[in-house]
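Researcher: For the record, we're logging two predictions in this thread. I'll number them. Prediction 1 follows.
Model: Prediction 1, sequence and structure:
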Amino acid sequence: MTQTFDYDLIIIGAGVGGHGAALHAVKSGLRTAIIEAGDMGGTCVNRGCIPSKALLSASGKVRELSDSKHLNMMGVQVGSVNFQREAIANHANNLVSKIRGDLTNSLKRLKVDIIYGWGKIAGTQKVSVITDSGEKFFTAKDILLCPGSIPFVPPGVQIDHKTVFTSDEAVKLESLPHWIAIIGSGYIGLEFSDVYTALGCEITMIEALDDLMPGFDPDIAKIAKKVLIDDRDIETYKGVFATKIIPGSPVIIELTDAKTKEKIETLEVDACLVATGRIPATKNLGLEKVGIQVNKRGFIEVDDTMAVIKDGQPVPHLWAVGDATGKMMLAHAASGQGVIAVENICGNAKTIDYRCIPAAAFTHPEISYVGLNEPQAVELGQNEGFEVGTTKTFFKGNSKALAEGETDGIAKVIYRKDTGELLGVHIMGIHASDLIQEAANAIAEGKKVQDLAFNIHAHPTLSEVLDEAFKRAV
């Protein structure tokens, strides 16, 4: 450490991105401090990945044990299935407390200085922290911004955090409304519809775009719609805005046609979850102190080394990772970005490849993907002059899926026909989130389908759905 600085690295924000960066920084020999204004662990640990997966796990057990047809097929009979909402909520809350404690302790063990308060840039290589005892200033050779994101609430939507709420409140599972509207059919909306329907709630899903599950590969979305929505008798609206939502009992929702802007219907429901995505938490970070402006969507612009960009050039000693960069708003992406940033801070030139970072929705069954979907691949092929090939295999032909009685699902492989380069893989089915990592590693290593087709997979396993897809490609 240069003696003129208090620290080699100061990290603002102790979410998954900041935590991953701090651990790697200490291992790399940097004297490190991390500043946090809220709960250690950020959104993922406290209001996102961790509590939502606990709810999905518990409600998934209820769904599984309540499916008498499925169980009878395998010769299993069970009585009535009962659950306690409070106990399920406590399961999620206890898990959050444990992981938050583990995260904090891991920083303390490595002697990372934890500073509680609101941190922001105070100048070049300088930060200020507003604490209970006043404002303090620290200097660092490098500063890493990890402020994260917050739920996006569209205009016209009133939030009372009880009858109209975001995922921040939904993970607490303080109630199980008889009829709940979910605004948005992306990952958040799908996962909570899975939880609520398993626990007996009726759902109305409202999507502003013309298709449900926008962003998913079309073949995956088609099957997912049947299994996760149609088979559960979830009422859906497409191409419709919820232009006004008024909390209360009942909640009033005015629906407007997305194209004509005409009011088409008014719903009265017991509760409403606003799952319309997330926006960067980039306000009051002091970016103006070093002449940085966020882009039109509020994100901090960075390059693939995670350096903050100003006028097209990297700003010395200033870095940013996680949701606030808008690259991939995923916890594990933020952690990976943090490691890349630290490597570059230490003089080890590294860049991040977003195409090999997988993503998953933990519904029942799960959805996962890595790389490009088919429309994206086709567009790339048109621009670069190559033809795209696709292959599909179905879980209903997989021995392990048949043994489990879980045959709803598909694996889709997207590749270049000329070189065999793997461009993307999309899976819907049991344990899809675990299966996708093989494909992610293959894309990271630049593997071709011609090589992947000769890999030997254990039998009988679910991984054979990918094995068969790779073999069909050649």
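Researcher: Logged. Prediction 2.
Model: Prediction 2, sequence and structure:
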Amino acid sequence: MADVVALAAELMAIESPTAGEGKIVDYVSRWLVARGWNVTVQEVTPGRGNVWASRAGGGVTLSTHLDTVPPYVPPRLDHDRLVGRGACDAKGIAAAMLVAGDALAAAGEDRVDLLFVVGEEKGSDGARAANRLPATSRFLVNGEPTESKLAVGAKGSLRVHLRTRGREAHSAYPHLGQSAIAPMLALLPTLKDVAWPVDAALGPTTVNIGTIRGGTEANIIPGACEVELMFRLVGPVEVVKEHLEQWLDGRAEITYGSHIPAQFFHTIDGFETSPVAYTSDIPLLDRWGTPLLFGPGSIHVAHTPDEYIDIGELRAAVEGYQRIVRALLNA
């Protein structure tokens, strides 16, 4: 059986930002072909594609993504940690799935598939394309850093733009204009006073004031102000929209952006469980079976300069994925 730490380090040594995954797609597909897997590389855009490895099918698919956020941070061992870009998000997870899948195949279990997609960090074009493949699995185990717990669910998301409008004038004569920024500044602090929905499993709805843009120069009364909000949803989006529109009461224009619904996942006895607040490719892979979410590492260090995964947890994940597959196949 391949050493999962060495394999993770090899994957991390291949720079693969979103839209530049070609080299790692080639590496993973060759690794699988050399071990007897039936491999399909599904082109997503020229030079990059999803890797689907199968044998008999009809069982469980282990899946994660091969792209990372920039900038590239090369792998290094730091005592009991593997440090570098993709350590936990998600090349360490990909390595654990590769080794687990190969161990299951070596033991005679041919009802496990492996699916590695591109583009998850920016738009999920890989997952959208993968959902057009002729999947046969009954369960999908998606890999994201969950601290080696099975996620009971994941919060959804909603992007919202708010706009206030004023009238420009020379700042020396403010009475001739009307500020667009002042009413927005009065409005935003009251977001925290809204009774946003709470779910027993996923927790509270949260909202982040992500960007504020307004005005053109310090000596001009600002004529426009725009804010982008990001909600993390725990239930129906319609409820949040209703609360939001009641709170606004016509004091700002509103435009709704992208929406991903909250998700609830299958779990298995014998594993610790926990909700997660982030989204994944799962909503875009509904043809691949009943979803589960599990992976070593913490989301709290993903996308940071000090991204790492604990070596002991990475090794344990190989057995963890095998336990999950066997339990699902025997269900």
